[in-house]
# Entry
Amino acid sequence: MRRFLGKATEAGIEIHMGKRLVAIDETEDSVKVTFEDGTMDTCDILVGADGIHSVVRTMHVHPSFEPSYTGLSSLYSLVPIRSIKSPLYFKGNFGAIMLSSGYFSTGFYDKARQHMYWWNTHEAAAKDRDEWTAMERSPSYQATSQGEDAEYHHSIVKEIIDISPDIKFYPIYTLPSGGKWYTGRTILIGDAAHGTTPLFCI
Ligand SMILES: Cc1cc2nc3c(=O)[nH]c(=O)nc-3n(C[C@H](O)[C@H](O)[C@H](O)COP(=O)(O)OP(=O)(O)OC[C@H]3O[C@@H](n4cnc5c(N)ncnc54)[C@H](O)[C@@H]3O)c2cc1C
# Structure
């Protein structure tokens, strides 16, 4: 990402962060985009790299092509290595433990091996978008989902979860194959076009 930003700056390309696309108007000659803050821009081509819930896809390229919930959700966080007292259970850069509730994975986040990321993927009932958002913000959900599995209560798994400063929640969606991924002047790339389902969800 840093390299990409560096190359863009060298080429004199302006980058605006924190913009939220809310409307697209494509004609034969150009694409006009409108952002949530009321600003607009007009371009020759629009590249929709806005993830599995892509608004470029749902508002413009293929509105009826909906992602579906896989039945699995992830909890994840990042912890400083110096906070972990137990010996690490893996050699190399990555390790995984199969819990009865799902997959618990850990790995080094940075080259200097100062931070470890972890995530746990487990089955969770489907909810609508507002309920997902409420759940993500609820510390009680995180506590409950961890507490339900006795395996969380011992070993390095419990230690890593206990020292995690901020646990995030992520429901995993997938897109069916096929679907339209371009119009005359707009193209979808990445998850917006072909939502990558992690291997452990297949
Ligand atoms: C649990 C899990 C584990 C995974 N593990 C791996 C792995 O080990 N290796 C691997 O290669 N892949 C993995 N993947 C898949 C990988 O994360 C995705 O394929 C990848 O992040 C997709 O990148 P993207 O840029 O297309 O979309 P995203 O990373 O989703 O980025 C989309 C961006 O668009 C922005 N956006 C959304 N809406 C708007 C809007 N209206 N206006 C402006 N911006 C907007 C978002 O803020 C975001 O920055 C995993 C996925 C999951 C769920």
About this structure: Helices lie at 2-10, 55-61, 129-136, 139-147, 155-163, 191-194. The chain has a mean pLDDT of 85. The chain has six helices and ten strands.
